[in-house]
Design brief:
Layout lengths: L12 H10 L18 H10 L1 H23 L3 H28 L11 H9 L4 H25 L4 H27 L5 H24 L1 H7 L3 H19 L19 H15 L45 H5 L1 H8 L1
The structure holds fe (ii) ion (FE2) (2 copies).
Length: 338
């Protein structure tokens, strides 16, 4: 039910993040479209294909946010509602700049009939309530962040690398919101809801794996090891799941790994964690992008950190960081100690 003056605390962390987002807007007109692409033809085509799930994900995130905003309003969560309005605009911007990138490259993304799992992923995100969606969008944002971060670090002067650096600052805010919201919400959920959320992570990861298998030739052309890329992503999801209380001792629903040690999610996490130990997500392969030692690949053998999970993105200091206000907030400080 709409209210003339809903309850609103301007000092709430989400209200602060909302204002930060309002002051951090940019548009496709700020992108230097004359920057070099920095990719030979085969790798440029591979990029347009591998980027396709991310591109669809930007649109899926827009649709999801538009559906969740009324849910937040109905729950009286005004500051989260305001923040999500900026999230929606961020994803609209990402969609637009990627659309212009496709036009610049002169290639199309892969069609749904070629990779139907992209549609399955989109539909899975739309199931459930706002908590399901925020957990799913956190997983999606982690995937997108890892993808964009690789190019921002390895090709900082190239067109997509520059674009990625801008997008990453937006994604940092998105992750900060999702993590903080879930950190508040998950402890209130019954065990069966937590188990369902763990199952959702498993489904999404498995669907990502299926998408990767469809695009394996292209990821290899770019020099990515997709299996290890997903392994790193799984480790990040696991770290967030533990911190928000979905798994581990914080789960509060039976101990162990959330009281559900035999799920597909747990097995997948274990399998991918083993992969992380011995391989790098991005490797030097003949014909691939020249990913230097010390790039994003260097983190592959490093155990995932619990918090703040590199939320600071590319900012050199707290003064420049998009999520510094949230980091200083009491709720985040307690999350860091958890
Ligand atoms: Fe995005
Ligand atoms: Fe996002």
């Amino acid at each position: 039910m709409i209210r003339v003056q809903p309850a609103y605390d301007p000092e709430d962390p989400f209200a602060r993040l909302f204002r930060k987002a309002v002051g951090s807007q940019w548009s496709a007109d700020d992108v230097d479209w004359e920057a070099p692409l920095g990719l030979p033809q085969r790798q440029a085509v591979a990029l347009t294909r591998v980027l396709s799930p991310v591109y669809l994900g930007e649109q899926s995130a827009m649709y999801g946010a538009s559906a969740v905003i009324p849910q937040l309003a109905a729950a009286g969560q005004t500051s989260a509602q305001l923040y999500l309005a900026t999230f929606l605009l961020d994803e609209a911007r990402h969609f637009e700049v990627l659309t212009q990138l496709y036009q610049r490259l002169g290639h199309h993304p892969v069609a749904l009939r070629e990779v139907p799992e992209m549609l399955r992923y989109h539909h899975r995100l739309r199931q459930g309530d706002r908590i399901d969606w925020i957990w799913g969008i956190l997983i999606s944002d982690l995937f997108a962040r890892q993808f964009y971060q690789a190019f921002a670090k390895v090709q900082p002067a190239a067109l997509f690398g520059r674009m990625s650096a801008r997008v990453l600052l937006d994604e940092s805010r998105h992750q900060a919101f999702s993590h903080t919201y879930l950190k508040r919400a998950v402890p209130t959920l019954p065990p069966e809801r937590r188990q369902a959320l763990r199952g959702m992570a498993s489904e999404l990861l498995q669907t990502m794996g299926a998408i990767h298998r469809r695009l394996r030739d292209d990821t290899e052309a770019l020099g990515f090891d997709g299996d290890v890329f997903l392994g790193e992503l799984s480790a990040q999801i696991e770290a967030h799941a533990r911190s928000i209380g979905l798994t581990g001792s914080g789960g509060g629903d039976g101990g162990g790994d959330g009281g559900d040690p035999g799920t597909g999610a747990d097995r997948a996490h274990a399998d991918w964690a083993r992969l992380i130990a011995g391989k790098r997500a991005i490797s030097r392969r003949s014909g691939g992008v020249a990913w230097p030692t010390g790039s994003m690949a260097a983190s592959a053998s490093t155990p995932a950190r619990r918090f703040p999970f590199d939320l600071h993105g590319l900012a050199a200091s707290c003064q420049q960081c998009a999520v510094a206000l949230l980091c200083r907030a009491r709720v985040t400080q307690s999350a860091a100690r958890a």
